[in-house]
UniProtKB/TrEMBL annotation, chain A:
Record keywords: Membrane, Transmembrane, Transmembrane helix
InterPro entries noted in UniProt: Spore_III_AC (IPR009570), Spore_III_AC/AD (IPR025664)
Protein source organism: bioreactor metagenome
Keyword Transmembrane annotated: yes
Protein name: Stage III sporulation protein AC
Amino acid sequence: MDINIVFQIAAAGILIAVLNQVLIRAGREEQAMMTTLAGLVVVLYWVIQYISKLFETVQTLFNL
Amino acid sequence: MEILQIVIIGIVGTILSISLKKESPQFSLFIGLTTGILIFLFAAEYLKRVIQILSQLAGSAGVNSGYMDIVLKIIGISYIARFGTELCKDAGEGAIASKVDLAGKIFIAVTGAPVILALMEMIQHFI
């Protein structure tokens, strides 16, 4: 029951949002967009592992 | 009690998701998704016990195990379809949610077809 994945994602989200604002204020909108996308990809990588665990559990549970 | 853990996880996930809703909506959806998965993985242990009890009952009641499998399969399909639909609705994508729902209903109908056919044969047999 590791809830720290939720905290990791929240921390990543806050970090990306702050970084985004800083880069936009600094006049580099493209880099801001790129960092947001990079953050999204990293978090997506974490979440995909949980999604695959969910689907494995459901398949074994309901023998789909 | 485990239910307390689940409620706490749900509340923490909701608060984090709302706090990120304005700046980065994508991450709030990720948090909602992960919290949902964590809670389900936690409840899956107890669900396994319930399913075992159900299949024992069905076995002792003489129900054909094939039908029990179909019932379980339909429950699994409906759960996953609802999981996806609710997620898309949370993100505000009503159109995608209804398509996922439609596909789920179609798969349930396909899975349940043999039972209906068996019923029809039984009825014709009596008439």
